[in-house]
Every structure is written in C-alpha cells, then in structure tokens.
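Lecture 7 notes: from sequence to structure.

We start with a single chain of 349 residues. Read the sequence below before looking at the structure.
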Amino acid sequence: MSARVRRAAAGRSAALAAALATVVGAPGSAWAAAPPPTTYGEAMPVCAVTDPRLAQLSGLASRGGSLYAITDQASVVYTLDESCAVSAVAQLPDAVDVEDVEATADGLLWIGDIGGNREPRQDVSVLRFNPSSGNVTVLPLRYPDGPHDAEALLVTPSGLIVVVTKEESGVSRVFRAPAPADPAAVNQLELVADLDLQAITARTRGNGSVLVTGGSVSPDGTHVALRTYLDAFEWDAPDGDVVAAMTSGPPRVVPLPTTPQGEAISYDAQGLALFTGGEQLPSSVHRIDVARPTAASTDAPSSAVAAWAPVLRWVALAAGAAAVGAVLVSLLRSVRMRRRNGVPLEVRG
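Now the structure, written as tokens:
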C-alpha cells in the first residue's frame, strides 16, 4: 500500500473514531447523559394544627429541626413540636399585619410585617429575630410608588430582603431593600421587577392561582419558591440572585394539596423539602420532598441513552464496516490505476 493510500486510510480511521465517540456518548458530546429534572413528591401531611391561636396561620419557617409559625392576628412567633402543638411562644414588638416568616442558615428569623389586605400600606417593616437570645431588630421599609399589600417575604443567606406584592391583576411587583438594611433609618425599597404570574401559569381556577401569599429561599440561596392559594412555583438561582432567577424564565410548578386559605411555605434545613400550611382549623402542615440532580447522577447514563445502547452499538458496527469497505475500495482503485499506468506495486514483507 502506498504512503498516500495509507495516509488516506489513517484519516478515515480518525474521522470514524471521532464519529463513533460522538455516537456512543463521549464526555461533552451531544449524546452525553443530560441531568435528570427536579421532581416533587406527593404532599404528605406532617401534623395537624389545632391550637386556636393559629387559626390565621400565615407563615412557616423550618430550621434546625424546629418549625416556626406566625399569624396575621398577633405579633408572636410560635414554635411547633412534631405534632404541631405550640411548644414555645416569643413576643415581638407590636406589628400591623404580620404575613410571612423566613429563616436563614445563621438561625435568625425574619418576620414580614408587610400585609395590607384591609388597607394597603406604603410603610412596612421586617423584624429580625434571634430565637436564641430573644433579640429583635426592626427594619423599617418604604415603597417608592405608594401603598401595597404583600404577603411574601424572601431573605437570602446574605440578609438581602425582597418583598413580592399580592396583586389581583396577577402581575406582582418585586421590591428589594438596601443591603444591609439600616434599623436606624427608613429603608427605601427599590422596584426591581414585575412578575406576571398570569403568563406563567396555565391554571384557570380563578385569581387564587396568581395571588402571591408566601415565599421562601433555600438555606444555600440557590432556589426560591413562591406560593399562591392554589399553586407553588420554584426557580433555580445558582448564583444566589433570586430576583434574576424569578424573571429569567418560567418556573417549575409544584403541586400543592388543596387546603383552605393556603398561605405558608418554607424550605427545610437542607433545601430538599417544602413545608406548606394554611388558615382555618384544623389545618394540616404538609411536606413535599424535592429530588434534585446530583453530581453523580449527571455522570450516569440517562435511561433514554441506556435504552438505545443496543441500537447505538449496531450503528457503530455498521459505520465501522462502511469505513472498512471504503478503505478497500480506495485500495482497489489505486491498484487498478497503477496497473493501467504500468507502475509496479509495492510489496512489503
């Protein structure tokens, strides 16, 4: 075989190897396994709230093995045990309309005195509460564009405060506080986004599917959830920017149990479950487990690729046979040309 033919054959072999690597799923190729999607388990009842003090339960927060609850009728934080019975009570400074509570990984609770269902307010506040010491810091906030009614408070691990309003139009306004918020001044909220839930959800069971009644940020800040009376929505925020996450694309819809006046939602301490609750008694607290992709799962072949593996192997064999046939045809053509031109064949021992 001449050097020219050998070089051609080597080139075809290299091209074939590259093609086969793509077909069978070489690292980084189009056939490499895609990470599995985030999925949500069935809402499972954890316990039933029966204490009359929690008849207007409006917010839940879960951290450190404890479940904290607030109502819009009192400036109090209730600690619940495993049966949803009140095990401790912490009195807060007088508030107007407490609607949501967030817990951060440092053990602090952030209580949103942001409601305005009866009368929208321009001046609201967030109470930063340390359950260990009992210390409370009031952070005054003011909307830049007039009064609002809000029930969703989001707090990132860095202490950034975000308030999402409750709008019958289905277009919630998203406001961000200065970071860090100053307890000695009225902190001017900044309008950073409009969130059109009417465009996001296909649910048509009245405006209950677009009225935002609660929110939560995962302990590591990489996920954010909002709930309405009927639905919940979750976005990924890999860089910790929850505002950008909520406005950069459609969320996943989280199936919620049917409950009267559902308002509360919170991540667990690992960010792998959501707790939900609502008003009226008795009212069940539900847990929804979240299955997220892991580094190990993204390296494993997907079920679709595994199912097609036998077919892919036959494709690879057929492609290999075709390549060998092409090399032989090229060789025979070269031999015929040499004989036609009177060029002696090279014979190598």
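Residues 15-32, 297-309, 345-349 have pLDDT under 50 and may be disordered. Keep this in mind for problem set 3.
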